[in-house]
Every structure is written in C-alpha cells, then in structure tokens.
Amino acid sequence: MTATLSESAQSLASPLASSPMDTTPAAAVPAIANASSPVAAAAANGADRPAAGQLPGALDARAVGVMTLLCFTWALQQISLKAVSDQISPMLMVALRSLVAVVLLGGLMAWRGERLDSRRWGAGAAVGVLFALEFLLVAEALRLTAAAHVVVFLYTAPLFAVLGLHVLRPEERLVFRQWVGVALAFGGTAVAFLGGHASLATGSQVLLGDTLALLAGAAWGATTVTIRSTSLTRAPASETLFYQLVGAVVWLLPAVWLTGQWHFEPTARVWAHLAFHSVVVSFISFLTWFWLMRRYLASRLGVFSFLTPLFGVLLGAWLLNEALEPTFLAGSALVLAGIGLAGRAAKPR
Predict the structure, then answer these.
(1) Where exactly are the structural domains of the chain?
(2) Could you tell me the pTM of the whole model?
C-alpha cells in the first residue's frame, strides 16, 4: 500500500514519502513515504530524527539486511497483485488491504494515545484522494501491462516531487546537476516506453498500462508535494498514513462498484495474498521502517529505495515469466541513474 519528507530528505527516500514527512534542505529530493513505501512517510514528517539522547548509528549488517528485505517486500506487492488478478481484481485487493490496515493502524494509534489533529483534516483529505488515485491507476495499469513496468514507472515519483517542490518551495530549487538527473530519468522513461511493447502482442494496451503507471508515479509525487506544503509536514507519520489508508477505502470501494471489478474468489491463495498485503506490506513493513528510523537517519537508509524497482523487474521475470526487453532494461537503468543524480542534495554554499 501504499506506502508516504524530513530534513534528511536529501536522499531518494526523502522524495518518495507519500505518507508522513519537516523542512528539507534546498535542492534536496523529498522523501516519499506511503503505504507502498513507508520510506516516504517517515521522511516527510521528520521521523528520521533519532530518538532524544540517541545518536544515529552507522548502518550495520542488521540494518542492511532489514532494509533489503523491506525493499524486496515493497517490490513483491506489485507482483502479488498481478499474480492473483485472475481471482481478485487489483483494485478490490487494494481497497480491502487498506481497510484491514487502517483498522490495525487505528488500533495501534489508540493504544499509543495518538489522536488526529482536526487542523490537518483538510490536508489529510487531499492526500487521501491522491493516494486513492495513485492506486486506482496502479490497479488499472496491472491489468494492462507487466508488473515490472508498473514498479519502474511508479518509482518515477521522486522526479515529479522535486519538480513540484522546485516550483512551490524556493528553498528547494534544483541545481544544474539535479536538472541533468531529471532529464536523464525522463529520457530513460522514454526509452523504456519504446522498448516495452515489442515482444507483447497487445502493444497498445501495454502502452496504456505503462502510461497509467507513470501517472500513478505523478500522483505519488503530488502526494509528497502536498505533504511538504501543508501542515502535514509536522504530523506524525502514523497520522498521515492513516489519512492515506482511509482515502483508499473511501474512494476505491465505490470505484470497484462503478467499474464492476467485484471479482473475488475466496480461495486459500487469495486469502494468503490479502493477508500479505494487509498485514505484511501495509502494517508490519511500516512499523519496521519506523523502528529503523529511530536508529538510523533516513539519508543513510534511503539509498536502498533503488532496490525496489530492481527487485520488481527481477521478480516479474522470475515469478510471472515477464519478458525482459533490452530497451526496457536500458531505460530502467537510466531512470534509476537519473533519480540518483536528482536526489543528491546541493553542497552548502
């Protein structure tokens, strides 16, 4: 689920926070944390700051191992949605997993004594709509194109985030190096588009699916910009994620009904995938991420976000027998390189 900026949003993790995320240094890429990638949520609300009296530690073997596992999990969610799409529609799966996750998260917040701030309801409603739009587009994209394509195009979100923040936040203007990264990444997107349809019979459908996945990345980026530009930048990560999950339930369930995508086969396989999405992806991975955030800075962990689209491509080929077109792989490499370049914060002057 998605999975959504903080002072250490200088890294990719910072730009992708669709959930909870404080002010970022100029020209730094915003973290994007949401139910699909909690990295973004934490970064946006300054959750990457170590606990009081604690100094951030260098990454140890445990941190590296856990982050690698988290990125693997976040990539696997798209593969899972695609794998059981013949038994449960991706849109219905996302709506149901959001419903389960919001109940779990609400219970956790109640146990911790956390309350929603009514002054942030308006901004919360906005990110809820954007989050729902993101996964509506993801769900439709998965019906038309390869899961690997969806993962790669979805993770262009940091690019849309930095462009939006460049316009809205003077302290986050892009420097020349970052503009080069943006151009490189969008050039890679074009290459990936050109190479993604040659070996697939339904080329026009695949192109549409790729476009929807790219638009989902734009929606994710817009979520980050909204968080960074409103009172949500000071909200706890759990509160921002709560708004996102509620938005997914409120908007996606009617969308499922309107589009007739109620297909659900209550098999053991479907229940297992639903449990994975609801408990592992949207709840446990979120809590695990914040456990890491209490011990390490987001800027030290964010680089691992690059593993998610890489895992997505490999898992799509391995588990779904998706073709790996050379031009798509080349374009994906350019996208990742561009995001890495755009995500490097400018040196203080």
Answers:
(1) 38-342
(2) 0.80
**pLDDT mean over 137-155:** 93
pLDDT 10s digits, 254-282: 999 999 999 999 999 999 999 999 999 98
How many of the other CB atoms lie within 10 Å of CB of 318? 10
